[in-house]
Amino acid sequence: MSAPHDQHFLTDPDAIRKIAHFSDIKDQTVLEIGPGKGALTKELLERGAKVIAIEIDPKMIEILGSRFADEIDSGRLNLLNEDAVRCDYPDFDIVIANLPYSASSKITFRLLEHGFKEAVLMYQKEFALRMMALPGTSNCGRLSVMVQTYAKVMPLLNLPPEAFSPPPAVDSMVVRITMKEELTYPVDDPEFYSILVRELFSHRRKTLKKSLKSSRSVIGEKRYERIVSMLPDEMLKKRAEELSLKDFSNISNIATK
Fold it and tell me: Is 75 annotated as a binding residue?
């Protein structure tokens, strides 16, 4: 098991209380990733949630096990000494977590693949803003497109470094992520869609035509030929950051029909 990703503990009691109250969690199974010493865990349990906490640090697991012995015995808290980037996620309804910033992207993608009713997650503010960046703007990236394809994101709370111990060097933001019941722009092959978005943004300074050519071994020769032959020249001259969600969906669906 690898070392802990980050060690910035949220200590502001008002912020902890607000985060735990953003969702209706009574009698719900809540997944918490990176509980640390259990400040948020305590609030979630007090609000009537059943909590599954994934914590990579064995020292924190020991602290949590001692602090919440009664809740563990009663089955209201399940501690998993695992790496949330790699482990299988158990079934849950809602995820509420102060994510380790160095693993935010990987964990977010994994949560989207797993699916959930709702997520209240804390990120580095810059990361959260990129997640919400509109397709077609310069701040848009793979993260923006993948999250907004499958979910809606709403900012909830800004937090300064002083809300943590030790204080990080960045501001933080809590957001609510709600999975879309029906996609605005349907995706025929989600696996290929993910590959396509990743590849196009890995060559984001190139035009779509050149980007696809650089990625033809990854997306497949037949799919490459199909996309290039069916897209208008005007579209092929655009860059990934200039494409809309509808564009990404259309390109992917053209390739997989």
Answer: no
